[in-house]
Amino acid sequence: PHPYGRWFLKLLQAETDRMEGWCRQMELDQRENELPEDILEKMRTAVGSAQLLISQKFQQFRELCEENLNLSIHPRPVASDLAGFWDMLQLSIENISLKFDELHQLRANNWRPLDPPDRKERRLPPPVPKKPHKVVPHHHPPLARDRSLESSEKQRQEARKRLMAAKRAASVRQNSATESADSIEIYIPEAQTRL
Hints:
Layout: H1 4-32, H2 37-69, H3 79-108, H4 144-180
Organism: Poecilia mexicana
Protein name: Discs, large (Drosophila) homolog-associated protein 1a
Region (Disordered): 110-183
């Protein structure tokens, strides 16, 4: 058996350490600075979301990884189960990372509100050309930012596909196990909490 559980446990520990470090930093910043209430609220939200993720979903994933490593458990979670759960966690991790990114930017800006990107307001529509001319499309390579957005969106889509595949596989395994049993059990999934 391949130690997938061990590999995912290392990834999980790295994410846990990273988020716990962010939480400690925010708690320190709260103590050392006179911060406006809106920034304190952003800090509490980010720290609370991270702590909730670590104490619930991360713990659940840790247990799944440990079951994968335990050869006496049947049925034992397989690599695709772990990968599907990890992909699902990535969405929450990304969401929390964005909250902390904003706080890090605020700190770098001495806790002053970040200036929104320049928006040049146009009250008048652009002038209409007097003579119609043929529009020649110019091919501009996408900006690096656009590529990274496309890439992260593509990664999210792939993660969702893998998660759905893992759920379908688990459902098929569950159905075949239920069919072979003498009694029928009804499984009601726990309510998902969006972080």
